[in-house]
Amino acid sequence: MDPQPTPTGASEGTLARPIGIRAIEGRPTKGLLALGGLALLVDGAAWLYVALRLPSLAAVLPIHYSAAGQVDRIGFRDQLFILPVIGLLTLIANVVLSALLRRDRQLPYVLMGVALLVQLLIVGAVVQLIH
């Protein structure tokens, strides 16, 4: 069996990576950790805000409005926790996807940035519903 020639730039026994593609190996970068930590902090603030305001709210309150600004759904005050749950599930899903797709250089940053954006939107929605 003839030995296979090694690609340019690769030494014996190693696999060559295509030029321009750099795999992110090992631990996540500081930027990814900062985005994830900030998203987790914002989600924690949503949980805390709902928990602190819950006792002072009426037992039944509007939890959804139509595009015209009319109340189209009424629910119990405990249902306000649905929004922080959605935020937490989104964050978990994006962290898992970032870990699975860590070979891509930019996609983990996009996923964590989207997770942070979702958390901020959820905090805005919680504040609007409670006021």
Helix content bin:
40-55%
Strand order of the largest sheet: 1-2
Shape, per Cα inertia axes? elongated
Distinct helical segment count: 3
- Spell the H/E element sequence: HEEHH
Total E-strand runs: 2
Number of domains: 1
Beta percentage is 5-15%
Sequence stretches where pLDDT stays below 50 over 5 or more residues: 17-24
Radius of gyration: 23 Å
Main beta sheet strand tally, sense and closure: 2 strands, antiparallel
Average pLDDT for all residues:
83
Q: Between the first and last Cα atoms, what is the distance in angstroms?
A: 76 Å
Secondary-structure content class: mainly alpha
SSE topology sketch:
Blueprint: H1 30-53, E1 60-65, E2 71-76, H2 82-100, H3 107-130
Antiparallel strand pairs: 1-2
Helix pairs in contact: 1-2, 1-3, 2-3
Q: Can you describe what's shown?
A:
The protein has three helices and two strands. It is elongated, with a radius of gyration of 23 Å. Helix 1 (30-53) packs parallel to helix 3 (107-130) and helix 2 runs antiparallel to helix 3 (107-130). The chain has one domain. Residues 17-24 have low confidence and may be disordered. It has a two-stranded antiparallel sheet. Helix content is 51%, strand content 9%. With 131 residues, it is mainly α.
